[in-house]
Amino acid sequence: MKSSSVDWEWLPKNILDLIHDKLVYFVDYIYFGAVCKEWHSVAQDNRKRRHTINASLPHQLPLLLVPIKDKDERLIYSVTQDRVSNMRLKVPFNKRYYGSSYGWLIDMDETFTIILLNPFSGKIIKLPRITKGEESTTIHELFIWKAILTNDPDLYPNDFMVAIIYNGLRYLAVYKSSVRSWTYLLDHPNGTGYFDIIHHKGDFYAIDGGLGVGKIDVAGIEKSPWPQVSLVAQQAPSTLTPEISTIYLVGTSEGNLLLVQRVYTQVYPDRVYGDWDDVPLFTSSFVIHKLEESKERVEIRDIGDNAMFLGDNNSFLFPVCGIPGLQRNCIYYTNNEYDPYFPYDAGIFNLTDGSIKPHHIPEDSKELPPMLWITPSLS
Question: Of 32, 90, 235, 341, which residue is 20 to 30 A from 24 by alpha carbon distance?
Answer without folding.
Answer: 90
